[in-house]
Design brief:
- It is a single chain.
- By secondary structure, the protein is of the alpha+beta class.
- The strands form 7 sheets. A 7-stranded mixed sheet has the order 2-1-5-6-15-14-12, with helices on one face. Strands 16, 18, 19, 22 and 23 form a 5-stranded antiparallel sheet that branches. Strands 17-25-24-20-21 form a 5-stranded mixed sheet, with no helix packed on it.
- A hairpin with a 4-residue loop joins strand 18 and strand 19.
- Helix 1 crosses helix 6.
- The longest helix is centred in the last third of the chain and has 23 residues.
- It is elongated.
- The mean pLDDT is 91.
Amino acid sequence: SASGNNVLVLLDNTAMQQSYSLFFNQLKDRGYKLNFFSAEDPSLTLTEYGEYLYDHLIIFAPTVEEFGGLVDVPSILDFIDEGHNVLLAGDSTVSDLSREIASECGIEFDDEGTYVLDHFHSGQSDVADHTTVSISTSEDTMLQEPVITGSKRQSDRKPVLFKGIAHTIKEGNGLNIAILRGYDTTYSSNPYEPIKATSTSIMGSNTILVSALQARNNARVVVSGSIQMFSDRYFTSSSDNEYLTAEISKWCFKERGILRAHNLTHHRIGETEPPQMYRVRDEITYSVVIEEFDGKQWVPFQSQNVQLEFTMLDPYVRTFLKPSTRGLYTATFTVPDVYGVYSFKVNYHQIGYSTLSLKTIQSVRPFRHDEYERFIKTANPYYTSCISMLVGVFVLFVFLLFTK
């Protein structure tokens, strides 16, 4: 991972390791060091001497009402605020503790005791109550972003099994992403109670099963309404659970979708070093190398929609940076005919990728008095008027001098 390999795993009880061993073995095979604790362990702590002990946090404790030791909701939110990552899984009995963590991340779980139901796409093992839903990973149900959900071809994918609680994303939250959602026939309700007009508040494609948050500091949080989605039972069935959970965890723990920039330069065309000041109408070349972490190493990042802005309060120039195969992005433009203090800005926001924000301040001066052209073409009317006035004065002088 680009941000470290030390993981704290909080479980309802440590015996749960056996039921989710395949998922945990995935993480170990990718080089993670897993530290298993009961969520109520009195020795729990995320920090020691002001330093975080872990890079990532997995919470597989949907029924725990209170964490042990020094771990609580504010400490987990501080963990996220410091740029660390959290994977949270619940079920139909999700506790108020897990609800509060999810709510702080822009996610609202449905009422306790409700399940995601679909009578047209139920898992074969639960024909009676249809609480196990089989979701085919189509464009309607799964986020089509390979950096998050993997690059496996659609024709090779199998359905994903899900048994748990639905959730929604708070309105107006632009940082959350729905990764897996239900069909038009999917709804959330308590299967053991009669359905009433008010008992089904989440239905259709608004039934979100798995979602993610990428915070402004690039911390990542993934919330799944089904802890069983990660279980050995579902991994060994004819499903795509093992593949999808592996891809989601790679994104969550920053094995992919992480960008960095270096070798940022700008200069006049024909030069190699940036000047102390640019002059209006100068031709400028701006370049920067952008790389992406692929899970093992940094490789050149390829995209056609990285933009450069040359701004002074408002953008005066906005242009696309042209990429090369080496990850070098370049743009050439003319400095506006307005002097002042400008900023070179690159703000790259793309679903699944970390935010890339670059800013360089540079002054732009006007022409010096000896840098203007000797004769300006646009001033020809003024030149003509001056010459015609002189000619007129001369003619008038001759007329007055030689006439009686």
